[in-house]
Amino acid sequence: MQEGTVITLGRHIVEQERLYPEATGAFSNILYDIALAAKIISREVNRAGLVDIIGSAGKFNIHGDDVRKLDEFANDVMFNALDHTGNLCVMASEEVDDPIPIPDEFPCGNYVLLHDPLDGSSNIDANVSLGTIFSIHRKISRGERGSLEDLLQPGHRQLAAGYIVYGSSTMLVYTTGAGVHGFTLEPSIGEFLLSHPNMRIPDPGKKIYSVNEAYYKRWSPGQQKAVDVLKDEGYSLRYIGSLVADFHRTLLYGGIFMYPADKKSPKGKLRLLYEAAPLAMVIEEAGGASSEGTRSILQVGPSELHQRTPLYLGSKSVVDKVEATLKA
Ligand code: AHM
Ligand code: MG
């Protein structure tokens, strides 16, 4: 490749697809459609602070209950970008209780999409980074239309996963199992451009742990010990409270992100299928590790759509160390 060549997300997806001669293009189209949805969500997230000044162009504003409506907007954008293309057989969203069928008037395809359309939206008033998280599986059920069975697959079967972080710039990071690649949105041309090829998490990386330490008294003795040990080793605490932003920093700098189980939330807070599994695929593909305490998140077989899980993500040596302390 010539020096100075600009690689758009579209070109990158096509080049990745060529690695699989049997590919039909359907899978690539899903990634394009997610990127389109991300651009629309990014535009609205960036405008959210202006709504009081210039008025809302859409059906939401930024206050009180209406904050949640930005989640709903993002959810609708994802649905509308992906419902009609004939590539998906069923979807699921953190915002919706039940499986989301493809409308009867559209054909179904061989893929399954799960997503959290706008994670961390309670932070929007403070201009804190938000994110979208996605996970793609192959259809495994026999019927023509997808079903719950297609959605309840363990993370190790994901074909692709990634996230978009709406930060000081908007970035899309994804993996199809052939490395982790990061793209930055160039707003003036509306394209995601390859800015972070072959991302690898540093190990051990910067001495950073990321957890809501206010819950310390509710943690198990093993969890308390794990954090005590990190502090004794000179680690610093960084916690934004917006998962995609905390995860993105962890991927770039190393260290560990934790959302453990505690006495109040014995299964943790974060969702296995929309948050934990996709980010676990990304971090493991980048050379890091994921855990739910005793095993990789990717090994956990879901039994319900909105299942929660304790979550550890980060540099492999650090996750291993914390896992060992939890077991001790
Ligand atoms: P949400 O799904 O209700 O938006 O909550 C998810 C968010 C994550 O972004 C973040 O990691 C976590 O909740 C923070 O929770 P806490 O305030 O308990 O630390
Ligand atoms: Mg969420």
Describe the structure.
The protein has helices at 9-17, 26-47, 51-54, 66-82, 148-151, 221-232, 243-253, 272-285, 316-327, and strands at residues 88-93, 100-101, 111-119, 130-138, 160-166, 170-175, 180-186, 191-196, 208-210, 236-237, 256-259, 289-291, 311-314. The strands form 2 sheets. An 8-stranded mixed β-sheet has the order 2-1-3-4-5-6-7-8, sandwiched between helices. Strands 10-9-11-13-12 form a 5-stranded mixed β-sheet, sandwiched between helices. The protein folds into 2 domains: 9-196, Fructose-1,6-Bisphosphatase, subunit A, domain 1 (Fructose-1,6-Bisphosphatase, Chain A, domain 1, 2-Layer Sandwich); 208-327, 3-Layer(aba) Sandwich (D-Maltodextrin-Binding Protein, domain 2). It is an alpha+beta fold. α1 (9-17) packs antiparallel against α2 (26-47), α2 runs antiparallel to α4 and α6 crosses α9. Residues 53-68 have low confidence and may be disordered. The structure holds 2,5-anhydro-1,6-di-O-phosphono-D-mannitol and magnesium ion.
Offer a concise description of the structure.
The protein is an alpha+beta fold.
Which helices and strands, and how do they pair?
Elements: H1 9-17, H2 26-47, H3 51-54, H4 66-82, E1 88-93, E2 100-101, E3 111-119, E4 130-138, H5 148-151, E5 160-166, E6 170-175, E7 180-186, E8 191-196, E9 208-210, H6 221-232, E10 236-237, H7 243-253, E11 256-259, H8 272-285, E12 289-291, E13 311-314, H9 316-327
Parallel strand pairs: 1-3, 9-10, 9-11
Antiparallel strand pairs: 1-2, 3-4, 4-5, 5-6, 6-7, 7-8, 11-13, 12-13
The protein binds 2,5-anhydro-1,6-di-O-phosphono-D-mannitol and magnesium ion.
Magnesium ion binds at residues 94, 116, 119, 275.
